[in-house]
Amino acid sequence: MAVILVIEDESTCQFYLKNRLSKMGHEDVVFVETGDEAVEILKCKTFDVILSDLMVPGSISGIEMIEKFRELAPDTGIAIISGYPEEDVIVRCQQIGVRDFLTKPFELGFVPDIVNKIIAKKNNDK
């Protein structure tokens, strides 16, 4: 199964994502709450999928965090989870290669679709 990094600071969202990803069989799921933690862990661990909120605590903005992800792990699939999907932010994310977005609140049924899509694309690109 996939190795997944989740950047989310809301405990309720963490709980539901952990539950859903576990039911999908993904046991190697790492949860962090800040952009700083995410960047640090990405420096020493490889992930297949990154699910990230854009409004997380830390010293870097959500966009800066995604740009750093692209620098550190250009082939890792990223899906954005956001309660505030502003047009300019979505456009910037698309410019740096993010194609998948979940708007909070989201249906948990969408999580497997997005994760499976990212994994399939990664496998096809090999």
Break the fold down into its secondary structure elements and pairings.
Layout: E1 4-7, H1 11-23, E2 29-32, H2 35-42, E3 49-53, H3 62-72, E4 77-82, H4 87-95, E5 100-103, H5 110-125
Principal-axes geometry comes out as globular
Q: What is the CATH H-level superfamily?
A: Response regulator
Walk across the major sheet and give the strand order: 2-1-3-4-5
Mean pLDDT rating: 91
As a percent range, the share of helical residues equals 40-55%
Give the oligomeric state. Answer: single chain
CATH C-level class is: Alpha Beta
Structural class label: alpha/beta
Q: Ranges with pLDDT <50 over ≥5 residues?
A: none
Number of helices: 5
CATH architecture: 3-Layer(aba) Sandwich
Q: How many beta strands in the DSSP annotation?
A: 5
Main beta sheet: 5 strands, parallel
Attribute tags:
alpha/beta; five-stranded parallel beta sheet; Rossmann fold; 126 residues
Kindly describe this structure:
By secondary structure, this protein is of the alpha/beta class. Strands 2-1-3-4-5 form a five-stranded parallel beta sheet. Helix 2 runs parallel beside helix 3. The model has no long low-confidence stretch (mean pLDDT 91).
In short:
The protein has helices spanning 11-23, 35-42, 62-72, 87-95, 110-125, and strands at residues 4-7, 29-32, 49-53, 77-82, 100-103. With 126 residues, the chain is of the alpha/beta class.
